[in-house]
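Page 47, continued from p. 46.
Same chain as before, 106 aa.
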Amino acid sequence: NGCKLDARDICGRTALHYCCRAGNIQNLTSLVIKMEDRTMFEARSNGGITPLMSAVQSANVYMVGKCLNHGFNPFALDCTGKSCMDYATPFKDINGENLCRLIHSA
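Result:
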């Protein structure tokens, strides 16, 4: 409602970054529906982190799955050359395994 969907904070993060990091599926769905510019799915923070990478960092398997279903790119690289898979591998639990499996199958 009047919010600029491409607005960024001082670190270059968009509403999609925050939504994906927080695991807010309802807001993700609302933002995706409202976004005519699908390049926002690839929006980069100042460090090159995409919204999908933010979801992976939170270890939220369901959110990562939703992002992938909406067409977010699992192969993007941040400024250091890390991918979503690189962000998922440090999790040494079942969530980490599920994240890696989900990203690999995308």
